[in-house]
Amino acid sequence: MKTTFIKTLIFAAIAIGMGATAQAADSPSRPQANQGKTMSKPTYVHDYQAISEVLNKYIEGCKQAKSSIMKSAFSPQATMYSVGPDGKLVGGAIPILFEGVDKGFRPSPEATAAITRIEIVGTAASARIDANDMSGISFTDFFHLLKVDGQWTVVSKIFQTHAAP
Fold first, then answer.
1. Phi, psi at 38, each rounded to 5°
2. Whole-model pTM over 0.85
3. pLDDT (tens digit per residue) in 82-141
4. 11, 68, 154, 165 — which has fewest CB within 10 A?
5. b/e string for 98-115 if b means 16 or more Cβ within 10 A?
6. Dihedrals phi, psi of 130, to nearest 5 degrees
């Protein structure tokens, strides 16, 4: 009888443990939004909006084929790189972008672009823009930004071109 009682206790403990595990597996991996508690971490809403404004200058400059619209979005020390058709690294100082936009782009008011991601931690951020048919080119850009003297600025850009849809 004592052995049966111990087996029953062990079985009950295992069943309770499995139930708790199943319940944990069913619950979301992240806590529910706020749940009535005070938020203790910054939300970066103002920074998100400021970064969006900076990135929209770039988008508008591409659409209008005018680097003068986008120049203020970039640090003078910014760089731009990609991989050329030969598989080699191409790019360099950001004036390469400005020259390419002014000389190689045509106005594309019908082009579409979306800021698909912005991640912010303190004074550092990264962002992604996907653009379709910008002067006949579609591309994905990845930007790194820093908040310098209270202003967000792009310090680097890497990109991948795609066939226009």
1. -75, 135
2. no
3. 999 999 999 999 999 999 999 999 999 999 999 999 999 999 999 999 999 999 999 999
4. 165
5. beebeeebeebeebebeb
6. -110, 130
